[in-house]
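Chain particulars:
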Amino acid sequence: MILLNPRLISYSIESKLTEIVDFLVTLGLTREGMIGKVLAKYPVIMGYSVDKRLCPTPEFLKSVGLSETYVQTVAMNFPKVLCRDVSKILRPNFAYLKRCGFGDRQKGALITGYPPILIKSIKNSLEPRIRFLVEVMGRQIDEVANYPDFFRHGLKKRLELRYRLLKENDANYSLSEMLD
């Protein structure tokens, strides 16, 4: 952990580490080893302000429809999402999904299925993938709500390559069949 975040040795155990652990406990990460896994997976989390950066994220996630259990899942599996600024990153990404035409249930499915969708770059990641899906593949936007992992795959190395191979062979598959 120290190799990933050398600043750890300068943090006060009393104040900083305790504050982060208490925050994670408030999210419901109370089973043995859960907090340790989060800290080991993303030790940089200890450098963020609990009040200014970390606390607003679970509140935002709940406000857009995620249950407490899903917020815990995000914290365990994608702690990086907790550390992103709500007003600068999470809210704009959520608004972008809305502008693309996703309904409330679909946005919920996207976020619960692949939480990092909220921290991906709109310009460099989300927009090109959605454009490729609709304009090149001729698919409907709602197909990705059923397969949120679509956004996990690289555009050039995975999506375009697989699509081209299937197109050449005149094969038609669902997104999950095409990419898994």
The chain is about 60% helix and 0% strand.
